[in-house]
Every structure is written in C-alpha cells, then in structure tokens.
Automatic annotation (TrEMBL):
Residues 2-83 form the GST N-terminal domain. It comes from Pelomonas caseinilytica. This is Glutathione S-transferase. PANTHER family: DISULFIDE-BOND OXIDOREDUCTASE YFCG, GLUTATHIONE S-TRANSFERASE-RELATED. Pfam families: GST_C_2, GST_N. Gene3D superfamilies: 1.20.1050.10, Glutaredoxin. The lineage of its organism: Bacteria, Pseudomonadati, Pseudomonadota, Betaproteobacteria, Burkholderiales. Residues 88-207 form the GST C-terminal domain. It comes from the Bacteria.
Length: 207
C-alpha cells in the first residue's frame, strides 16, 4: 500500500487532528510542511488537490482528500477501526454530529477572539469580548454533554468526536482569555491525556 502523506504545518490545529488520529491508529504517515512560513498552498499543484488553498491535504496514492474531519474519518475507515468510527447507524451519526458541531458551531465561536488575541489580527474590543463570551458559551455546551456521559463526548467509548473536540478544548485552555469553570471538560481532558499521541499533537503547547 502506498505511503500516506499529509500536507500541512504542525502548528495548524487541523493538521494535528489528522496526525493524532494517525497516531491512535498506529499509522505511519509522512507529513510535509505547507502553509504559513512554508510552501504556499496557493501553488498550482496544491490548488489542484484542494481548490480552497487550505491545509491539510491527505495524499493516499492517487487519492487526495481535504477537510480535516473528513481526513480523520477516512483514516479510521481505511484501518477498519470501528471504535473511533462506529459502523452502527445511530452510533456513527452521533459521532459525526459532534464532529460537525466542532467544525461549524464551535470553530465559528472562537474565530474572532482567537485570531485577534493569538494571531494578532485587528478586531474591535467589543467584537473580541463577544467572541470570548460565545466561545465560553459553546464550551459550556460541551461540558454539559460530558457531564451527562461521565466519560467521553458520545458516551463510554472514545471516538473521533473526542479527537477533534480534544484539540478544540486544548485551544480554549491555552488561549489568553477569561475562562469559565468547566469541571467535566477538565476531567475529560485529563482522561484524553493518557491516550497515545496526545503529548505530541494536543498537549504540546501549540495554540
């Protein structure tokens, strides 16, 4: 089987999602630096693989795939891992529901505040304050879910929902903002820290 390649810099949260998934699956994956400070994803060859010009892109032989959560799902399915990505209809739907929530609702809640406070993009103080409030509100929704399950995002089992949301929660914990107390999130992150690859791709100090 051809070697897997992931195109994208490690400082990207979306690249780290895919790399942590690969580590959990025991996959040997070659990562190449693309993005800010490295090769430009606006190069024609890259745009032929991802017309959005964003990272990461997975290359598996003659097959290419973009969108980090789709890459995580593909890697799990490629390995036949039914723990990270269940095959039972409703169990899989629940995992994908929370993955979609991470990519849409949660990511959009932190974008303005994070890009201003960490990446240095200009933003009005009121926009930053609203962003922090929205970020905390969304994380409180996750905390409520974890309090109900008492274990992981979708229940007792560790799944891809925990992978992608674990990266998001770590970003929230590292951000220079005033955070609300979320005990279920804190306990869950401690559980996640025992997983293979966590130290390399989640708890590595990267924003």
């Amino acid at each position: 089987m051809p070697a897997l390649r992931l195109l994208g810099r490690l400082t990207s949260i979306n690249v780290r999602k895919a790399m942590w998934t690969a580590a959990l699956l025991g996959l040997d994956i070659e990562r190449e630096d693309w993005g800010a400070g490295f090769r430009s994803p606006q190069e024609p060859g890259y745009l032929a693989m991802n017309p959005n010009g964003l990272i990461p892109v997975l290359v598996d032989g003659d097959f290419t795939l973009w969108e980090s959560n789709s890459i995580c799902r593909y890697l799990a399915a490629r390995c036949g891992d039914t723990a990270l990505l269940p095959t039972e209809l409703r169990a899989r739907a629940r995992v994908e529901q929370w993955m979609d929530w991470q990519a849409g609702e949660l990511n959009n809640s932190w974008r303005v505040a994070f890009m201003a406070l960490v990446r240095g993009q200009p933003a009005a103080p009121e926009a930053i304050a609203a962003g922090v409030a929205g970020w905390n509100r969304h994380m409180a929704l996750l905390d409520g879910q974890l309090a109900r399950t008492g274990a992981h995002v979708c229940g007792e089992a560790f799944t891809l929902a925990d992978v992608v949301l674990g990266l998001s929660a770590q970003r929230w914990l590292n951000a220079p903002i005033e955070r609300i107390e979320l005990p279920a999130v804190q306990a869950w992150m401690q559980r996640l820290s025992q997983r293979p690859g966590f130290a390399d791709y989640v708890g590595n100090g990267m924003p």
